[in-house]
Amino acid sequence: MKNLQDTVNLTNGVKMPWLGLGVFKVEEGQILVDAVSSAIKNGYRSIDTAAIYGNEAGVGEGIKKGMQEAGVAREDLFITSKVWTDDLGYEETLKAYEVSLEKLGLDYLDLYLIHWPKEGKYKEAWRALETLYKAGKVRAIGVSNFQIHHLEELMKDAEMKPMINQIELHPRLTQKELIAYCVSLGIQVEAWSPLMQGQLLDQPELVEIATKYQKSVAQVIIRWDLQNGIVTIPKSVKEHRIIENGNVFDFTLTKEEMDKIDALNMDQRVGPDPDNFDF
């Protein structure tokens, strides 16, 4: 991994950037458009959104603006969206995909995910994702917030394995067992909320490592993700922070430092528990 355009090969050979921009909780409007376009302008190629974020139209505008300003072609970008729990089901998911595509103003998505493993619903939704994939409407398909037992259940009837499992992952929630399981099946793990929504920025162990490399704590965490083989999508709307988050390719954490960060794990979530959510 040498720069923001470096990619990992998913099981179907599609190349996905290791590092992207997340836009969770960023409302429609100029701030969002500018964040997405400035990310593209500054070398990012991966943008991650979701139907429930209510900001796909703004993300689409930002993509268009960024492509123009950076002289980047659509095929150089990697755009992800996710189907919400209300739209899980075969026909419903197919329809939700078209709605997302229209809002984004795109002809296809690079990655489409089932956002949460809603019991009794996600298998039919997965069948829809397989249909979209076989029709060439999406380049890769996957899931989000799936535990081992969800993946096992999904694959009992699935024609193809998810290519991605996007999960909450940060130094307080390292999810080692789930990662090992995904790796054993060739499912690429992707981290959401890698910075734990800013809660780790004054963690002494991380501050110490950051000081050593003259980096920010956020950069240290992003680097830890990458060295663990995890795709990551830190969120920011400030251009200087977006640039900073992408500037993580000029240092390498030692094994001791990686272990020290792993040791911060407390199985502590900032988001809902995939085994106990009510939406």
Automatic annotation (TrEMBL):
Highest classification ranks of the organism: Bacteria, Bacillati, Bacillota, Bacilli, Bacillales
Entry GO MF terms: oxidoreductase activity
Lineage: superkingdom: Bacteria
Family: Belongs to the aldo/keto reductase family.
Residues that, per the record, bind substrate: 115
Organism whose genome encodes this protein: Niallia alba
Ranges of residues in domain NADP-dependent oxidoreductase: 33-265
Keyword field: Oxidoreductase
CDD domains to which the protein is assigned, alphabetical: AKR_AKR5G1-3 (cd19157)
Record site feature (Lowers pKa of active site Tyr), residues: 82
This protein's name: Aldo/keto reductase
Classification via InterPro entries: AKR, AKR5G, Aldo/ket_reductase_CS, NAD(P)_OxRdtase_dom_sf, NADP_OxRdtase_dom
Catalytic center residues: 53
